[in-house]
Write a structure and sequence with these properties.
Chains A, B: Its EC number is 4.2.1.-. Two copies of one chain form a homodimer. Chain A is built from eight helices and eleven strands. By secondary structure, chain A is an alpha/beta fold. Chain A has a single domain, classed as Class I glutamine amidotransferase (GATase) domain (Rossmann fold).
Chain lengths: 208, 208
């Protein structure tokens, strides 16, 4: 089984690394980091680069595709190399997945038309404008398309999909080895739960 | 404020990226990825490299230090370059922190002697043998030393420390922007909660 995590300039590091450490830890899985070109790919803040080890042209039959997001939708919806690759490999994947605004790339590639899907909470309107049907769930399954909410949700998506692929025991071993027993110091992880002034600040100052 | 995340061969990627996306998102913070040499540093599974942009020699006065862990303790306790750097920079840090078995490096450098601390649940005995006093908490503060449990706990540590440094509002903005509203599909993230056979498998098959 080959899991291909797509990288592109301005991706969010945790979007890629959450699924890498969960889904990518499945026994027997080969996880590859794939991009238009091999070599370092810079993240959204510019200070962290992850090395792509394969080009899109080299990865033609991945079983699972994971597309991370990033703060500026143009990096997903306007990325021709990424969208062309997604359209080319999707017909033979078992699962085509995304984290955060990675779903905007899937939608822009035409893969989520009419499908239930999710994205970062600040990008729901953009996802809808691309033809998907946004939901408020953290991890959304619609056929073989699995989309997760913002950034850290890729961990929940990765564990959920690990369970579907190899069973609950294997997924729980991965959860225990990554000690994923979350204890956030605040309860502000979704717009429904965060204080109103926190939500307002994000909408006014941080929405791209 | 400079936050220095140390990299070394065989580190666990999520240990570094969890704090990077939380603590490292503080307004005004410069986050640097530092290692013995600049360039790509391979993770524990060998397939993911993060690029170190500074050498230990170049980063002499970080305000915050973060040491990620990795599965084989020799990579922490036997890493002379890392330990020498930790001893050199610790006297002037505001916070010296670790995720997972990163605390074994802090302890081997002599920084946790007699202090309350934590590590990956499979490494508690090793931490104790290095002079620290292990606890079962997920994030442990003892003076300026902050240690977190395994792998994913670096997200909780990063948010907690973000709040200490710049207040609850800023930390909650980071939590909301990373949509950290965890919904694990299983409740197996600690040895107290996971099914006995899952714990037993990890102890017998996966302990280094």
């Amino acid at each position: 089984m080959q899991i291909a995590i797509a990288l592109y300039e301005n991706f969010t590091a945790l979007d890629a690394v959450g699924p890498y450490e969960t889904l990518g830890n499945l026994p027997g899985a080969e996880t590859v980091l794939v991009a238009e070109r091999t070599g370092p790919v810079r993240n959204d803040r510019g200070g962290l680069s992850v090395v792509a080890t394969r080009t899109f042209a080299e990865v033609t039959r991945p079983d699972v595709v994971v597309v991370p997001g990033g703060p500026d939708p143009v990096n997903q919806t306007g990325n021709k190399a990424l969208l062309d690759w997604l359209r080319a490999v999707d017909p033979t994947t078992t699962w085509t997945t995304s984290v955060c605004t990675g779903s905007l790339a899937l939608a822009a590639a035409g893969l989520l038309t009419g499908r239930r899907a999710t994205t970062h909470w600040l990008a729901m309107d953009t996802l809808e404008s691309l033809g998907a049907r946004p939901t408020g769930e953290r991890v959304v399954f619609d056929g073989k398309y699995v989309t997760a909410a913002g950034v850290s949700s890729g961990i929940d998506m990765g564990l959920t999909l690990a369970g579907r692929l190899q069973g609950d025991m294997v997924a729980q071993v991965i959860q225990l080895m990554t000690e994923y027993d979350p204890q956030p110091p605040y309860d502000a992880g979704s717009p429904d739960k965060a204080p109103a002034e926190v939500v307002a600040f994000c909408r006014s100052e941080l929405q791209t």
